[in-house]
Amino acid sequence: xxxxxIYGLAFLMVFGMSxxxxxxxxxxxxxxxxxxxxxxxxxLLTNSLAGLGNWTTSRxxxxxxxxxxxxxxPSTSLYALPQAAFSGNYSGxxxxxxxxxxxxxxxxxxxVSNIVxxxxxxxxxxxxxxxxxxxSLKGIEFGKPKYDTQEDIYKGMIxxxxxxxxSFDGSPISGDIVYNGNVDSWKRMANSLRMLMSIQLSxxxxxxxxxxxxxxxxxxxxxxxxxxxxxHNFKLKYAAPNYKSPIWGWYNGRADDAESKTMTDMLxxxxxxxxxxxxxxxxxxxxxxxxxxxxxxxxxxKSRAFVNANAGxxxxxxxxxxxxxxxxxxxxxxxxxxxxxxxxxxxxxTESAADTYKDGITLSFTQWGLAAxxxxxxxxxxxxxxxDNVKKIATQQWIASYPDGHMGWNVWRKTGFPVLTPxxxxxxxxxxxxxxxTYAAAxxxxxPELVKEAVDRLPGGDKQDSKVWWDQ
Length: 472
What we know:
There is one protein chain. This protein is mainly alpha-helical. α7 runs antiparallel to α8, α8 runs antiparallel to α9 and α9 crosses α15.
């Protein structure tokens, strides 16, 4: 976005110096009185919401979480350098959402736009760490915005969500393809997002009286409630042909990805019925399942040899869950219940860790149309709470978040669970699982002083093995 603004200003300066005559000298010949002079807030919101599914279906993060394996042309799952640009996010969806805020068609439209902005910033900071936040989207005034610390970004996002919930009134929300303008639903979503953000900071603020616990409890008790049933889920139901599920596109003429053996082995070891949904036996639709996960982190010759020898290898999700019009889940009741279990286990709340944990697992099963798990499942040694609670809760969070790589990668980075074995054919020097994206080369050209400040704050520098702030 900053390049668009800078180049636009340069054009106006050159035009002004070379031709000082008034533009009205050309008359009104090319003025269309029916032309739109202001962007449509409704269309901007619709487009912004439609793109959110691409964040939670990131194949790259799915590889790092070991949800997925590459079946051919492996690179990302072998930890090739994840040098990626984030500038397109500012000039794209974030710019559209800021336009809505600037136009301010209604208080509720602005509130929803602010909430969605925080969702995107959350995804971004968890990938790179320090990024432009407080000075971003402000135009020429901050053509080279500073990189805020991740601590400041998290605190800023949580405050923005709190303020957005408090600002809702009776005004309309247009273009809302998620909750159809329902304010109660947006309050629940924003409060739930605050809970997920707060629990992500438990390594930095573990105390029950600390910042993270205080914010978590405030969100738990906030006006509007939180996502507690699958009917409340923050999700996108795609409507083909205008909007097609990004997961459907993964097997539209290609077959580069599979459910990983890491996941199928985990589900098999727990006798977990979700194994019948998480993997399909063919590229096309249908209800055929597969439990044959593809070994993770193999080079091309090995991965191709495996899939050639196992025609029914597990594709990501059963076919009837990855059609053109399938649903992509963004925040679920299962994730929130399991976050509540984690908070209770930390001593942050007086809720029952065991009860919220069971609720979270049950909600995950029923989210996918499965029957609630039996007592035998909950009583199994690797599931029942009582010992190794951190490991068991984290493992269930990791399973329940599939195929959302952002959530799975976050759980593993924060807790170390489930224990993931790095790719055997890794190509990076450390041979370790990627901990963050590195900054794009353009950042060093366009914003050298400020990106250097951010790099200096990273232990180990701008490396894929360096940990973001909340992971340290």
